[in-house]
Amino acid sequence: MTRLTSNAPAGTPNWLDLGIPDMERAKEFYRGLFGWEFVDYGPEAGHYHGCLLRGEPVAGMMQNPDPGGEYWWGLYFATDDIDGTVKRVTDAGGSVVNPPMDVMDKGRMAILTDTVGAQFGLWQGREHIGSAIVNEPGSFVWNELSTADRRLASEFYAAVFDHTPEEMPGDMGYTVLNRADGQGIAGIMDGPENSASGWATYFEVEDPDAAARAVREGGGEVVAEPEDTPYGRIAFVRDPFGAEFRLMRPAPA
Hints:
By secondary structure, the chain is an alpha+beta fold. 17% of the residues lie in helices and 44% in strands. It has helices at residues 23-34, 82-91, 150-161, 208-217; strands at 2-3, 13-20, 37-40, 49-53, 56-63, 73-78, 95-103, 107-113, 119-125, 133-134, 140-147, 164-167, 174-178, 184-190, 198-204, 221-229, 232-238, 244-250. The relative contact order is 0.17.
């Protein structure tokens, strides 16, 4: 369990948000799954909603009325210097989708793509530091990039955030990105050839089997049934709008 009261170290995943076409249905689904409550930040924020766990923000949601769109949980990395980090992104071969902008007095954000085409964000917190609770049920516990070019992706994130890539032993086809203090903060896994690269989030739950049932009951889809792995019991699911994420009960440390 981790509770944050200040900005996470640079290069650490620190926020998630989701654009969906039906806010009320989304709130019903995620309330039933994770027990979240919601706060509307008002018209000046475009009615962006905070997803709260015991009163603390863990993620965000916004209205995206595009009926033909694809929906996904967007991942943000912490930075203390968003303009400097954006320059490192472009120097490393990434591209800018939305340049740095102020979000009222909450902080500054930018949206980018890496060298394998995966989209991610940067968040430089001010009043809003990002996810205040992580690594406990109802919050994110891990984030993972799937790509057909793991080496290229590893080199990119090492260049931008000074991550140290660590190859997992055996033939897993998996790289852990370690922060300067040695803490593993995200993973990169081999994806199918010719498939789109993208980040996926693992949300911690106490009982993945019960959570998978709640996904179905809420109108979502279970893509892969809960399964035991050396790292915990994991299920792949989608919400009612097709946004994919993972459910995970981590193995004991």
